[in-house]
Amino acid sequence: MTEVIEPAIETVTIDVVLSALADPVRLTLVRALDAAGDWTCGSDVLRDTGVAIGKSTLSHHIKVLRQAGLIRTRVDGIRRLVTLRNDEVEQRFPGLLAMLREQDPARAPASTA
User: Fold this and answer.
1) Which helix (DSSP H) or strand (DSSP E) does residue 38 occupy?
2) How many C-alpha atoms does 64 have within 13 Å on its Cβ side?
3) Are 81 and 36 in contact (CB under 8 A)?
């Protein structure tokens, strides 16, 4: 299995991370990867999010997130598996992923009003 090169976490800047997360599809993808917790196919992780995009658009979003240092990509045959760089992102930007989890509408508790 081959890994695709991503930037060293110490070279990643917050402006690049925030720019990558500013796109709603990429933000949804990061949250879905966080919930998945392990290597998964990018198109599989979006299945339950309600986001429907083409393969080339998904590839673009994955590339942007990888270049921003948020995800890691591994080639497994013809599949590209992705995972969130949880520990590294937490080390570089403490609390960022926790904040994304807290603000995730999909994880919000049901209202009992």
Assistant:
1) none
2) 20
3) no
pTM: 0.86
What does the alpha-carbon distance between residue 62 and residue 7 come to, in Å, rounded to a whole number? Answer: 14
Closest CA to 83 of 49, 32, 48: 32
**Cβ neighbours of residue 109 under 8 Å, at least 6 residues apart?**
none
Burial (CB < 10 A; 0-12, 13-18, 19+), residue 9, is middle
> What are the residues whose beta carbons fall under 8 Å from the beta carbon of 55, sequence distance 6 or more?
43
Q: Where are the alpha helices (DSSP H) in the chain?
A: 14-21, 24-36, 42-46, 55-67, 86-92, 96-102
Q: Cα separation of 8 and 67, whole Å?
A: 10
Q: What is the pLDDT of residues 50-104, one digit of tens each?
A: 888 998 999 999 999 999 999 999 988 888 899 999 999 999 999 999 999 888 7
